[in-house]
Amino acid sequence: MERRRDGGDGESRGSSVIGVFKSVFLPQGYPESVSDDYLQYQFWDTVQAFSSSLSGTLATQASLKGVGVGNQEATVAAATVTWLLRDGAGMLGRILFAWQKGTKLDSEAKKWRLFADVLNDIALFMEILAPYFPACFTLIVCTAGIFKSIVGVAGGATRAALTVHQARRDNMADISAKDGSQETLVNLAGLLVSLILIPLVTDNPVLTLSIFFLFTALHLFANYKAVRSVVMETFNEARLSIVLQQYLRDKRILSPLEGNQREPVFLENPPHPSGNVSPCLYSFTLVLFKSYTFPYACIFFLKGHWEMVHESHKVMDTVFSPFLKSEYTHHSLILQTVRFILKHGFANIISRC
């Protein structure tokens, strides 16, 4: 009887520890309060954060060496000027990037998240190399500062977009706060490992670069797996094009999982309508809006399926078929029209009608 009681106490303590861990690091109501892809994304996000923390430690050590820490000939004033120039360049880069790309970060959250992490690794690599080029040290660290400022804008904005996706009970603040707790725990673990790592790599550039490339490879792999695990349930240009193209090919409507798996996660320049295609696109747009059927083609996710069209066969027969039978017979026409509409906005097109 005593053994059974002791076993029960052990299970109770184990359950209590797990309960405390969940309450500290997971959103309230998990897993019902978050999206189905939450756990997989957070796992890979944790791996990439740990790798980035260790790579950042190596870059910080190199930057401090570059500004003269440990060098008796270095001056405090010179180091301060270098740091101020780096911070100033980063501030300008932050403003310019937000101005140029701010509107793209919501709809292309996956691409910009991956872009931000690649750019962050480039910036860290530049900081590690900077001390070996003293004549260009200030220029290199300022450029790295600009890159890091872009990473801050893109990473923060896309994280916010992903938080909106993960929230299922209007709990975006809770998810964001718990994500911060998870990241803090990972950074603390990275700090402890760094205390062991730094004495080993000091004054050993070959080992420093070897470890940096190892953690960078892990960082990029984890980031790729993280963005690939996200199953967004709304349309952006890429996902809408993929689903439309599949429907036109075999009348099959892709599920959100299938659509996201086919979505490219690397930045690219999609083709835009130009030349002789533009008049046809404009005419096509007029017909779509005057037929009052196009809005049915753009409603969001509901009950596990893309609701691409309402009464889909009727819409395709009455709207798409006439254009597919004309001299502009090509699936890309419809895809280019969608890009045209998304690029210029519904309001602008309606005003032109």
Folded structure, characterized:
The chain is mainly alpha-helical and 353 residues long. It has two domains: 33-229, Growth Hormone, Chain: A (Up-down Bundle), CATH 1.20.1250; 237-352, no CATH class. It has 13 helices and no strands. It has helices at residues 2-25, 38-66, 76-101, 109-129, 137-166, 172-201, 205-229, 237-250, 256-262, 277-290, 312-324, 331-344, 346-352. α4 runs antiparallel to α5, α4 packs antiparallel against α7 (205-229) and α10 crosses α12 (331-344). The longest helix is centred in the middle third of the chain and has 30 residues, at 137-166. The chain is globular, with a radius of gyration of 26 Å. The chain starts with a helix and ends with a helix.
Topology:
Blueprint: H1 2-25, H2 38-66, H3 76-101, H4 109-129, H5 137-166, H6 172-201, H7 205-229, H8 237-250, H9 256-262, H10 277-290, H11 312-324, H12 331-344, H13 346-352
